[in-house]
Amino acid sequence: MPEHEKTIELVPVITLDGPGGAGKGTVSLLLAQKLGWHILDSGSLYRLTALKALRQEAEEVSQLIEIAGKLDVDYVPMRDHLTILLEGRDVTDAIREEAVGRRASEFATIAELRQALLQRQRNFARPPGLLADGRDMGTVVFPEAPLKIFLTASPEERAKRRYKQLKQKGIDANLPELVSELEARDKRDSERAAAPLRAADDAVMIDTTDMRIDEVVNQVMQMASRCFGFIEV
Ligand code: DC
User: How would you write the pLDDT of the chain (233 residues) with one tens digit per residue?
Assistant: First the structure.
């Protein structure tokens, strides 16, 4: 039996895939708090690799793989976000910058780099359970997960959410530009040959365009309690 299947047999995993801005991060965080489970923010690994590569001006695939393999990262769950430490320094905001996101999306097309991050992602599956957030959680990283969710929302709604987040942080933003950036990112993530963004055949699709976050969380909680047989609290 492959190593990752052994892990999943012992540890319950819920995968949450979908495009940026569909609500995966917030939903994962709220579910993790409700269930007391761990979180894998897999996008952060691509972003951290991109941040370090930008800082070191590394371009070669072999350099990127070395960076990805040696990432020294810690996640500290806070009430409303995950604080991310790279080599002990807080990079939570730095990895969300547009330049880093663009690089992360480019690096995510490199199959060897994805392979270099695979086992690290699977190692996040620890008791009592894992919420795995990303693009290929249900298709590649945890294909045996018993509950797979695919969250979507219209590009306009996703751009609006991003606009609100940026404004809250005091960052100036332009809505039409955000829509076209999101569409370009979606296109690259969906059309790449290596682990493209797509729903697993057995994933449940939830369109969050007209839903509040608590409605999405409740819907997934109901599915999780049916799937794993626990009582909702
Ligand atoms: O979710 P995010 O915006 O933080 O992800 C950053 C980039 O990494 C995004 O362009 C897609 C890519 N990614 C990926 O290819 N596979 C994942 N499991 C997670 C993210």
Answer: 665 555 556 899 999 999 988 999 999 999 999 999 999 999 999 999 999 999 999 999 999 999 999 999 999 988 888 999 999 999 999 998 889 988 998 999 999 999 999 999 999 999 999 999 999 999 999 999 999 999 999 999 999 998 988 888 787 889 999 999 888 888 888 888 888 889 999 999 999 999 999 999 999 999 999 999 876 55
In a domain, 233, yes or no: no
Domain enclosing residue 164, as ranges: 3-226
Residue nearest to atom 5 of ligand 1 (CA): 43
Angle at 162 between CA 156 and CA 163, to 5 degrees: 85
- List C-alpha distances in Å: 194 to 88, 111, 191: 31, 5, 9
Specify the residue for token string 């190593």. Answer: 3
Residue to mutate (ligand 1; options 41, 105, 131, 152; most atoms within 8 A of CB): 105
Whole-angstrom distance, CA of residue 6 vs CA of residue 26 = 28
Domain count, the chain: 1
CATH number at residue 120: 3.40.50.300
Ligand 1 pocket (Cβ < 6 Å) reads: 20, 42-43, 46-47, 101, 104-105, 108, 134-136, 185, 189
